[in-house]
Amino acid sequence: MQKFFSNRKLIIVMIAIIISMGLMAFSVSVRNSEKTPPLVQRFGNDVVGVVDRVVALPANGVKSSFGAVSNLINTYEENTKLKAQLDDLAQTKTRAQTLQSENKELKKQLKLDKTLTDYSQLNAAVLTRSPANWQNNLVINKGSLAGIKKNMPVMAGSGLIGRIVEVNGTNSKVELITTDNQSANRFAAEVITSDGTANGIITGYDQATSELKMGQLNSDAKIKVGDTVQTSGLGGLTPRGLYIGKVTKIKHDDYGLALSLEIKPAVDLDDFTVVTVIERQIAGD
Amino acid sequence: MRLREKIWLNVLLVFLMLLDGSLSYIFGGTLHRYPDTMIIRLLVLGLVLVYFFAPDFPHLLWIALILGLFYDSFYTGILGVYTFLFPLILLLTRWIAQFFTPAPLVIGAIYLIDLTALESCVYGMNTFMGLTTMSLSDFIPDILGPTLALNLVLFIFLYLPLRQLILKLDSTY
């Protein structure tokens, strides 16, 4: 019977383990700093990304056509509901436009160029996602050539879904807000209450209830269930005012001091085909 | 001659690698439903079947290493996980295979052992790097079990077509 590893093989495997540990340490350090991966790796990712389009385009076509059929079934019911909301929306939109133009004029008078709420949008399509769920990563089809930078926030529909963690030439990776990663960057968020705002941080995701957790709040704010949560624009490259979700539960810790919230995300965090990358106009830190 | 044979089998393996990601994305809602997570491993199936049915395919270990490197870089950005594990499961396959004659049942069993080793090592590495906080008692029923079940079903359906494809590509000159 041959041994599992002969001596020579054992040494090779040992060396492989050491190299693999080194590579892991290197990748984690690149991931946690502001750096992009080395040129070779970016180039490799670009090549794979281009080849992946051959597989991803037909596959995503199938996905969207299935989606279209299942949407058709719900259409009638949705239509009646949406009609009711539409009148209200038109009024809100006009009001928003008026306020926006007024805001612009006032900013001009104050000689304010850009504030935390100014941002531009970049649309991108999802190419693929990582098969394993350890890193909740998506790959999207825009990269540094389209102006995407590391740490930009990413939205789908009306809600925040994650941030850019790696940028290559023609594709980039998005880490979803649902990640379990201990070293992930967290979003600074604020709750809009009837008497002002309360600042906090999105601290994690509860898979069992599919709700986001928010903690580290200044607890004197009177937060109610149903209040809106949005990004606060403090720190990083996130502008203020990106919609995250609504408060569903308010919890105090055992001593009644620290406050934590549960938030129902605005979008289904498992199902989207097109994302919007947000670029803040004011420079980040 | 030999070059062309190499290229088509390589194309197949790359295609399986990309299919892993696309299928996970398309069926994301089904595969990642709390608490169960099913991970599609068509590339591993491809590697194991190529090992058995294209035995004179040159440099399979190196190709597994390169594919692993691309897999890491493209999907997760953490190098060194699959780079190391894909060649390792081929070594494991080679070691187990010497005790048996390769019948479909045996290959299926070896494939499941490979997957168990692979998923456990990936879990271990992610815990080591602090990228997950999942406990072992959650990992075994929620990830390992469903993943093995899914890949067993895929193996049953894909064994014959993939074997024929590999044999055909292997004999193409």
From TrEMBL, chain A:
Residues 82-116 form a coiled coil. Belongs to the MreC family. NCBIfam families: mreC. InterPro entries: Cell/Rod_1, Cell/Rod_MreC_2, MreC, MreC_beta-barrel_core. The chain crosses the membrane at residues 12-30. Involved in formation and maintenance of cell shape. Residues 126-279 form the Rod shape-determining protein MreC beta-barrel core domain. This is Cell shape-determining protein MreC.
Automatic annotation (TrEMBL), chain B:
The keyword Transmembrane applies. It is a multi-pass membrane protein. This is Rod shape-determining protein MreD. It comes from Loigolactobacillus jiayinensis. It is found in: Cell membrane. The chain crosses the membrane at residues 7-26, 38-54, 61-89, 143-162. Belongs to the MreD family. InterPro entries: Cell_shape_determining_MreD. It comes from the Bacteria. Its main location: membrane. It holds the Pfam family MreD.
